[in-house]
Each structure stands twice: as structure tokens, then as C-alpha cells.
Amino acid sequence: MDIQWGSEGAHKFTTNVGLITSNGPHGDNIMAAEWTHQISYSPGLIMVNIGFDKATEENIKAGKEFGVSLAAEDQNVVSSVAGGSSGREVDKIAVLKELGVEFYKGKKINALMVKGAAMNVECRLVEAIKLGDHMAFVGEAVEIEVHDKNAVLYHAGRYHKIGEPVQKPDDAERESIKNLVEKHRK
Ligand SMILES: Cc1cc2nc3c(=O)[nH]c(=O)nc-3n(C[C@H](O)[C@H](O)[C@H](O)COP(=O)(O)O)c2cc1C
Questions:
Q1: What is the pTM of this model?
Q2: 32 C-alpha to center of ligand 1: Å?
Q3: In CATH, which of 2.120.10.30, 2.30.110.10, 1.10.10.10, 3.90.1150.10 is domain 10-183?
Q4: Which DSSP string corresponds to the chain?
Q5: Ligand 1 mean position to 59 CA, how many Å?
Q6: What is the tens place of the pLDDT at every residue in 51-72?
């Protein structure tokens, strides 16, 4: 079965937005990818899922490295520009620079990184797997900068801030759960 873009089911997911930077046949480029996940601690691996038609897909295949700048709560415009057109047709880096967004050169990779992000991770490609209608690129972190900013959340096509924590169960409820776990221990 399909889970179509923009469908009720797809809108149940909540994600981060990775600002994925790359350099290759399309020059320096940036795109927005909500499918950006940490998938291993040691080594630190990040997977991004990129549609086949994207300039980023060709850039990463050629350059074998990519940058992940996790969009901060005040970077929704950066995400919209990065996700709003293709590096095949538009120099989105130039657009963003004109909007006042600053970049720095990756220390370990040949790609630009976005200043003001919640976190910047420079990645070297270790796996490229065709999964469904996207390419899964797995990158090993080779340089990490963590900043004192929250990452923006993406849900049902809108940007959100981290909100109220959900109440944890109280001691009595935790005790009864513990007892049930003991009762059903295999
Ligand atoms: C918030 C947001 C999240 C997105 N997430 C993804 C994603 O995870 N994977 C993907 O292939 N495209 C995603 N897109 C669409 C791409 O960013 C868009 O197609 C972009 O134009 C591709 O740029 P490129 O051709 O320069 O690589 C997203 C767009 C937005 C605005």
C-alpha cells in the first residue's frame, strides 16, 4: 500500500528538518529533508532519504559527502527556500545569502554548512541504498558542532516548536506497571 505525500497517515509523523548541503555537478546546493535520522551512536551515522529527481541526490552520489545542518526554530525560512526549488534551476545558496543567511565551509567535507543551526554534522557517505521511491544515503559523522538552540519540528506540513512535556506516570502507576512486567516476564 502507499502512504501518499500530504495524506492523513503521512501527517501523523513528526520529524526534524535537515538542511542537506552538498557539492557536485550542481555546484554548492542545499535542500530540506524531514527524513533525516540518527541511526547509530558508535560510529555516529545519519541517514537522509532523498528523492531520485533531486539535485542533491546527484551531488551526493558524485561527491560522496554531505552536510546536515539541523534547522533551528528560527530557520523555517531557510527550510522553505531550501525545499522550494531545485538546485538544477536555482542557486539557492545565493538566494539565502541575499536573505542574510550565513554559511561556513565544512572543515572535513567539501560542502557549505549553515550557520545558526541547532547542530551541524559533516558526513562522509558510507552507504547508498535504493529504498522505495527514495535513495537512503547513510553518512558517517566526521565533524560535529552542537549549538544552544532547539531544532524546529515539522508536522503535517507546518513548523512547530517543542512544547509541553507529556506527564510521566506517577509512582503508583509506575509500581503497578512494574508488577505487570514482572508477572509477564518470560
Ligand atoms: C520541510 C521540508 C521537508 C522535506 N523533506 C524532504 C525529504 O525528506 N526528502 C526529499 O527527497 N525531499 C524533501 N523535501 C523536498 C525537497 O527539499 C525539494 O524537493 C527540494 O527542491 C530538492 O532540492 P534539490 O533538487 O536542489 O536537491 C522537503 C521539503 C520541505 C520544505
A1: 0.97
A2: 5
A3: 2.30.110.10
A4: ----TTSTTGGG-EE--EEEEE-STT-SEEEEES-EEEEETTTTEEEEEEETT-HHHHHHHHH-EEEEEEPBTT-HHHHHHHHHS-TTT--HHHHHHHTT--EEE-SSSSSEEETT-SEEEEEEEEEEEEETTEEEEEEEEEEEEE-SSPBPEEETTEEE---PPPPPP-HHHHHHHHHHHHHT--
A5: 14
A6: 999 999 999 999 999 999 999 9
